[in-house]
Design a protein that fits this description.
single chain, alpha/beta, Rossmann fold, 5-stranded mixed β-sheet, 3-stranded mixed β-sheet, about 30% strand
Length: about 180
């Protein structure tokens, strides 16, 4: 688990301190490594983002920030995971999901399924669902939308998919569809 916000990292590190199966790492993940600025409206807030969001219309102001270390997942995968196959990745980075995906580099070819969000955070990051659609298509994934009736396969891109309401999606490597479908 990667958590760049200092207060949340400390909280999670304390919570999972004795769990040998959970590692909490103090990094933001993106498509470049280095230093970044994490913006937030309140300490420990769940809206923290590498993008300074504009939510004045909700009386939410991202006037707090902290400097964070940013890594590429591919580098971590090469060094710490020894390039092994990954069954499932969940990305929840408030508008930077596509940057995380691009930073996976060759690791994307060793991941079976990825859960990600699309919604209002993408407005500030200037990302469209079309960007996700073509990214996953080029990497041999199919995309499913989580609905109250279950998973709905998105067979083709349509402009109507550009709905900036928080929605969860599951991208599944085409070669792994039979094993995924049997689980849902």
């Amino acid at each position: 688990m990667f958590e760049p916000a200092n207060s949340l990292f400390n909280q999670l590190n304390t919570q999972f301190f004795e769990d040998d199966l959970v590692y909490v790492l103090p990094f933001a993940v993106s498509d470049e490594r280095g230093k970044g600025c994490l913006y937030f409206d309140k300490d420990g807030g769940e809206l923290a983002s590498l993008t300074k969001r504009r939510l004045d219309h909700f009386n939410i102001y991202f006037d707090l920030s902290e400097n964070v270390d940013v890594i590429r997942f591919e580098d971590y995968w090469n060094t710490n995971l020894q390039r092994r196959v990954i069954d499932f990745v969940k990305i929840d980075v408030e508008g930077h999901e596509l940057a995380v995906l691009r930073g996976m580099g060759q690791a994307i070819n060793f991941i079976k399924a990825i859960q990600f969000e699309f919604g209002g955070t993408c407005i500030d990051a200037k990302i469209y669902f079309q960007d996700f659609w073509y990214f996953f298509k080029e990497h041999n994934f199919e995309i499913y939308r989580f609905t109250f009736l279950g998973l709905f396969r998105i067979a083709t891109y349509r402009e109507i998919d550009e709905t900036f309401i928080k929605t969860e999606f599951l991208a599944v490597r085409k070669t792994d569809l039979s094993s995924i479908n049997s689980q849902f």
